[in-house]
Write a structure and sequence with these properties.
two-stranded antiparallel ribbon, about 300 residues, mainly alpha, 2 strands, about 0% strand, 13 helices
């Protein structure tokens, strides 16, 4: 499945300027992520075989590509071969998750959708993000198991101690775990700190100009390496077709035609591309879904696949 790109010169192919529908904007960022195109294609194959919502059994010939496994499966490995290999390696507690759970964890989406699909509340369905608490319902219970993904963490709180103090300690523990997670993925710890605001809360940049972010991103990704390196003069490179100077002129012509009052500057266009790359490559689109209106996310999460 090809990575989605729109024609940056055609504003009608993008959410309108000032769009506040976070679910729509999140989809536009997700569908441009190179990993999404590949993962959606893998999951759509399982949907066709009616295996998307089923955990692969030890005798299944279902491909595990795109499915979360602990330990990880080899590329192209089927479930039967995977469990046989785990047995040979002496790993008794290998786990293969439901493909639907894996997809929802990575993209917050209930169903795999082709990246070419235009946004609509009936076709693009996100799963709600919820903070869930679990506790023993029976006091005689001595053990308790909780499944978590590698990008999650679990904490224990006592119900007979100060809640505020425990939350303060939990924030400190969370920030330390977030930095450790970033190091494991070859990201600088400073990047984690930069994204975290007061009290350990992630910063989210206002997506009011996401219309221009996306257009700058598509223009940038559509340029061939040969076009970028044509000339050693950076000013001439900027002025080439689809370059930053060309983008700014095109945008300002639109603003002038619409009788807008504030033209864009060189710095604006540069910041648009930087913001788009951050929201797409660094997966900040997840932050948009945290702030999405409940009717945009929660009411869409429980529709059966294919229902519009």
């Amino acid at each position: 499945m090809a990575v989605f790109r729109a024609n940056w010169r055609n504003p009608s192919e993008y959410p309108p300027p000032g769009c506040e529908d976070h679910a729509w904007l999140a989809w536009e960022f997700i569908r441009r992520h190179s990993d999404y195109a590949e993962h959606a294609q893998q999951m759509l194959r399982l949907v066709e075989k009616e295996r998307y919502d089923r955990r692969p059994s030890r005798k299944s010939h279902c491909s595990l590509d795109g499915v979360e496994c602990w330990p990880a499966a080899n590329k192209g490995e089927i479930a039967k071969d995977y469990f046989d290999r785990m047995k040979q390696e002496g790993i008794a507690r290998a786990r293969v998750d439901k493909p639907s759970n894996t997809f929802a964890n990575r993209w917050f989406m209930s169903d795999p959708i082709s990246a070419e699909t235009p946004y609509s509340s009936g076709s693009i369905r996100f799963t709600p993000f919820e903070i869930r608490g679990k506790r023993h319902e029976v006091l005689a219970t001595k053990s308790f198991s909780l499944f978590i993904y590698p990008n999650e963490m679990a904490m224990r709180f006592r119900l007979d101690m100060s809640w505020d103090r425990q939350v303060d300690l939990a924030k400190q523990c969370f920030n330390e775990a977030a930095e450790a997670y970033a190091k494991q993925h070859a990201q600088a710890p400073t990047e984690v700190k930069r994204q975290m605001g007061p009290g350990g809360h992630p910063r989210i940049k206002s997506p009011a100009q996401a219309h221009y972010w996306l257009r700058c991103y598509d223009a940038h990704m559509g340029r061939t390496p040969a076009a970028v390196k044509t000339n050693s003069d950076p000013m001439r490179r900027r002025a080439q077709p689809d370059g930053p100077a060309d983008q700014r002129k095109h945008f300002n012509d639109e603003i002038k035609a619409a009788k807008g009052s504030k033209p864009l500057t060189k710095g604006d266009v540069e910041s648009f591309l930087e913001s788009a790359i951050s929201y797409i490559h660094d997966r900040k689109f997840l932050l948009l879904l945290l702030d999405a209106k409940p009717q945009d996310v929660l009411t869409l999460a429980h529709k059966p696949f294919g229902q519009v």
